[in-house]
Design goal:
The chain is an alpha/beta fold. 48% of the residues lie in helices and 16% in strands. The protein folds into two domains: 195 residues, 2-enoyl-CoA Hydratase, Chain A, domain 1 (Alpha-Beta Complex); 46 residues. It contains eleven helices and ten strands. A hairpin with a 2-residue loop joins β1 and β2. It binds coenzyme A. Coenzyme A binds next to α2 and β6.
Length: 260
Amino acid sequence: MSIFENLLLQLENGILVITINRADKLNALNIDTIKEIKAAIQQVYDDPAVRGAIFTGAGDKAFVAGADISEIAELSEVNARSFAERGQEVFSMIERCTKPVLAAVNGFALGGGCELAMACHMRVASEGARFGQPEVNLGLIPGYGGTQRLTQLIGKGKAMELMMTADMIGAGEAKALGLVNHVVPAVELMRKSMEIMNKILSKAPLAIGLVIDCVNAVYDKDEDGYQTEANSFARCCSSQDFVEGTNAFLEKRKPAFKGA
Ligand code: COA
């Protein structure tokens, strides 16, 4: 029996598709769903059969319409801090995963939904997707890393505007701002996401993981990103896949990477 009540997990050729499955609540993230996302991403870390993951939402209306407001409404100050920290921890796990994680954004990505998409390494959106951080409408601010990641992705001025006005933006504007990588018709969303994922999975897995580490190091105040890059570059040069990749180039053939 599946341990997941709010997620659907499907493994397709090494790609774990994680679908937030509360369509009647526009896939709002209640606490149980956050716990299940943690378990699902842990599976991505641990299961060698999983080479990458794609988050999406059930139904055709929403990716995730935010944290579950009916639960938020009950939070005391003490509980609210641990509520935010728990979500931040789970979304940091996604961000730091050394296997690629994409968001296939199929509708509303608001509040915690926008934050979930931003924790992924890349975002593909359907043409009808809508993005926003509307927490100030509720007397709140983003609590799952949104103030940090939105600023990192689109810059201070636009991030301030989106979070202070609570405006929603469409997929086209999100792409122009750098919030999403690609916008496609809804029927193409999973195909395009799979295409990008499969391209990434055809490269050397160790190198992919180290790219993720090095890019994340930019935003880690305790890390010297240049040093992380030099160390990671050296680590690549001691790998079997480096020998395979360079030999394959010189022998004019496709490399067969093993992830070692
Ligand atoms: N938390 C809990 N329930 C939510 C939710 C959320 N974040 N977002 C939507 N829902 C629920 C609605 O309460 C409704 O449930 P009901 O049918 O039992 O009444 C159902 O999902 C459908 O939503 P509804 O508002 O009727 O759809 P809509 O098409 O009229 O509006 C939105 C869509 C996304 C604009 C609207 O649902 C909305 O503003 N949601 C909240 C967004 C938000 O503030 N997110 C940040 C939370 S911190």
